[in-house]
Amino acid sequence: ASAGFGNTNENENFQIINVDKTFLTEVLGVPYKTQYDMIKIYGESMEPFIQNGSFIIIDTTRNSLDKIRNGDVVIFRNNDNELFCKRILKNAFDDDVVISSDNFNFGDKKVKKSALKDYVFIGAVICSCNARIFLNQIEKV
């Protein structure tokens, strides 16, 4: 997913990886569930929270605007089929949603909730980590 200006993924590759419950809960600090996805992030728009090249864990049960909390970082596909990683800021007093970057060098986008009806929300980011965390655990085994 792109933390930047968007990324189309014509050649999406994925595989199922079984992750130990202890690794999730004790190393990553993630509550144990079975409905997580992991995606690599490309781009700098979500720095410093998510670094370019980091892996993020997504709670795929939070996959609609109603299930996303104000301030959540989410993965979504827009109506141009571009995959993004952005922060969602909901306004309780009107119909606007701000699609925001954490890096101030990237601008925010204000949209009406109705304009998001064609967006596909993959889920909310619950953890960001780099590959070193995984390698450290492998080296311990």
TrEMBL record:
Residues 2-125 form the Peptidase S24/S26A/S26B/S26C domain. Keywords: DNA-binding, Transcription, Transcription regulation. InterPro entries: LexA/Signal_pep-like_sf (IPR036286), Peptidase_S24_S26A/B/C (IPR015927). It comes from the Bacteria. It holds the Pfam family Peptidase_S24. Gene3D superfamilies: Umud Fragment, subunit A. GO terms for molecular function: DNA binding. This is Peptidase S24.
